[in-house]
Amino acid sequence: MTETVAVTDPTALSTELAPGADNAADLPEVRFSNREMSWLNFNARVLALAEDRRQPLLERMKFLSIFASNLDEFYMVRVAGLKRRMEMGLTVRSPDGLSPREILALVSERSRELTARHARCFLTDIAPALAEEGIRILRWEHLDLAQQQELTEYFHSKIFPVLTPLAVDPAHPFPYISGLSLNLAVLVRDPDSDVDRFARVKVPNNVARFVVVRRTAEDAEFLPIEDLIAAHLSALFPGMEIVQHHLFRVTRNTDFEVDEDRDEDLLQALERELVRRRFGPAVRLEVADDIDDEVLTLLTSEIDVAAGEVVRVPGLLDLTALWQVYDVDRPALKERPFVPATHPRFADGESPKSVFATLREGDVLVHHPYESFATSVQRFIEQAAADPNVLAIKQTLYRTSGDSPIVDALIDAAEAGKQVMVLVEIKARFDEQANIRWARALERAGCHVVYGLVGLKTHCKTSLVVRQEGGSLRRYAHIGTGNYHPKTARLYEDLGLFTADERICADLTDLFNVLTGYSRQTEYRTLLVAPQGLRPGLLARIEREIENAKAGKPSHIQIKCNHLVDEILIDALYRASGAGVKVELMVRTFCTIKAGVPGLSENITVRSILGRFLEHSRIFYVANDGEPEYWIGSADLMHRNLDRRVEVLTQVTGANADQLRATLDLAFDPDTAAWELQGDDRWVRGGGAKSVDYQDVLLKRLAPRGE
């Protein structure tokens, strides 16, 4: 029998702030940077990696693709949110003092600047450098006659049958343009009437963007599929004269809300909203920079975008497709491959050890991707599924891969008769559809599937295994900073703690009862849990450092996270700086704190590390007067994480804490290459004379090199 549950009683989840948390009277009114501009500054740092000629060439191209994908999501969510607030007439200013209209104007100017820089980097730098290495993206006119004839045959056999030209006239309304699709705006002329007519041809998204023209061991040549279609428009409009054609692309608002209090079936409500999301209003129109003015006027009118929402792009549109070119077999133009290490505690020579026997000897901290996800997290769940002594597995899933060994193991466990409870967060943005599929597959296998708490996303990364050992039960747990996603575990830097500590396991048992039932528990023995206890727990530790500094005792705060925008915590860090506490922050993306400002944040430094892997772990350290505390977990310092999500931080102790100490020492070493935040909100590249590569050092320290 299966269960599908959406718990509807979050009444116990109000946030109570620690003493002094709202004491901001002594701080200047303008003390926060703009959130949207901080994100654009982050994406500018990504673009700088593409521009950095010290990087391997195909890695530089990869960063161009990442920049483009990031900017798409920024428009779909952040810019869309600003537009929605303006359309609703909301004039509430953000913490930096700007109105939605003012922010949108700044964002538009900055994103145009970055888009032009992005296109210029590809056209004038990376594309010519690739051509010198024999990797070319050609245009139709560059092909010789034999190549054109071969591709014409390919077009008629593989592309032409799936194309649908859509005319626009009194009998044919302007077609709906789906978000992020590539489209050709075509003007054709009737030779009898000499009248020009408009048509739209959608570039199919289920075929490769780049058609292979030629590929050898040394060379690879590609043709954009839109060029192939454009060269054969006469086949789509026989008897008509092709006057002109132009490529364009629309970005739409993909954010949405589900009324969880009204909808009895959260799954069905979300599925309805996913359909509606496809038809969100347009927030950006990208066009080729040579587009005809009359065609552009028609597009802006029919798609309903303002002139300020049109972005002219020189060269190719949608450079996210460059991932296809990255796949060419040219190892000399990429980062050296490596083989993730199996944590030494999980192996005896070449033989894997029982995870349960290992954890009875003590906790294990793994550091991905340097240490293997497959031989730690994945093996933990797989061994639990196969072990006849395991009675139950409880698991949270926020994101996972299309072919997930974690889900497969959970299904195997349920089919073997074990009690399996899985919380699948079906509101994980952009993974909603995939998570709905996983939820149904798990239900069919007999798992108890839960969607979590109404009004909250469950973002914590937790697993709990209950095992019969002799005459008693013993519990084993994993708490991580990253998703149970084997593919991103090879690209994202994350930490995970495995433990059999009875207090932590008891806390996780209680937390799972909150997630699946009507428990009102708000306090835990060892964990900091959002939304009720995480912010107060962090604030209490910051306040303790302030008191220690005032008393002349050792005080120090170090935080590594993805985002820092929570005003209450930022104010606490400002007060810590004013009390003389050394505050060191490593923030990858959103960051609205101001660093090194006289009278506000003299003792605060902020760094950002970008590189081969996406820095994703969250680490929180306080000196605590000689009894240091280290915490890791799923939460960033944002309102959504602290107020509207279930998040978990767990303390790391002993030798595992020493490992975190070494990692933080390296991250904050002045010789480690990093971007450093200035008092005027600029990010400056630093790293001292040695300019040590943080990720490269960890690779050499934790993972063997492989060919």
UniProtKB/TrEMBL annotation:
Positions that bind Mg(2+): 399, 429
Signal peptide: none
Residues that bind ATP: 70, 492, 588, 616
Source taxon at top rank: Bacteria
Pfam families with a match to the protein in the record: PP_kinase, PP_kinase_C, PP_kinase_C_1, PP_kinase_N
EC number: 2.7.4.1
UniProt PTM comment: An intermediate of this reaction is the autophosphorylated ppk in which a phosphate is covalently linked to a histidine residue through a N-P bond.
Domain Polyphosphate kinase N-terminal: 32-138
Keyword Cell cycle in annotation: no
Residues of the Polyphosphate kinase middle domain: 147-324
ATP-binding keyword on record: yes
Polyphosphate kinase C-terminal domain ranges (all copies): 354-520, 527-685
Catalysed reactions, semicolon-separated: [phosphate](n) + ATP = [phosphate](n+1) + ADP
Active site: 459
Keywords for the protein's UniProt record, in alphabetical order: ATP-binding, Kinase, Magnesium, Metal-binding, Nucleotide-binding, Phosphoprotein, Transferase
Entry-linked Gene3D superfamilies: Endonuclease Chain A, Polyphosphate kinase middle domain, Polyphosphate kinase N-terminal domain
One example GO MF annotation: polyphosphate kinase activity
Cofactors that this protein relies on: Mg(2+)
Record family assignment: Belongs to the polyphosphate kinase 1 (PPK1) family.
PANTHER family: POLYPHOSPHATE KINASE
Biological role stated in the UniProt entry: Catalyzes the reversible transfer of the terminal phosphate of ATP to form a long-chain polyphosphate (polyP).
Protein's recorded name: Polyphosphate kinase
Organism expressing this protein natively: Jatrophihabitans lederbergiae
